[in-house]
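Quick one:
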Amino acid sequence: MNKFLPIIFGLSQLFALSAAHSAEWKVNYERSKIEFTATQNGSGLTGNFTSWSSKIDFDPNQLETSHISAEIALDSISAGDKQIEDLLKTSDWFDTTKFPKAVFKSDQIVSLGKNRYEAQGQLTIKDSQIPVALNFNLTIDGPLAKASGMLQLLRTDFNLGNSTPEATVAVPVLVMIRIEAEK
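Output:
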C-alpha cells in the first residue's frame, strides 16, 4: 500500500492543478469580429480586421487565473475603400511592413456585475504599448459563450496618423468586439 501513496499523491496534485486553471475557449472566427469606427472629414468610417487570433482562458468563477490575448494582422484591415486601406498600411499609420500585428494581453479580468467584465491589459500597436481596459458583456450557455465589448483608443497614443490633423481624422477611435466561442 505504501508504494502507491506517492502515485496517489501525485495524481491528486495533478487534479488540483488542473482544477485551478480557467477554461480554454475556442473562438469561432466566422461568427466573431473586431471592428472599428473613426470620424473622417466629419463622417463615420467603419472597418474591421479580417485576420486575427485569440487565446481565451476564462472562468467567471476563477477570474484570478483567467487570461485573454489576441493578435491582429494589421494588413488585414478592411474599410470598404482600397485607397483608405492602403493609406492605413503606410508608415504614418499602422506601418504594416515594420509592425505587422497589434497585440493585446490581459493582466487582470474583473467582474463588473451582471455578466459584465473588464479585461485590463496592454495593447501594443507599432512601438507603443498602452494600458487599456476592455469592457465586455458575456453570456455563457453550457459550452457556448458570446461576448461583446468596446473600448475607445486615442490614435495619437499609438503614433497613428500623427501628420493628419484632427479636423481630418478625429483622434478617438472606437473598437468593438463580438466573439462567439465554445469549450
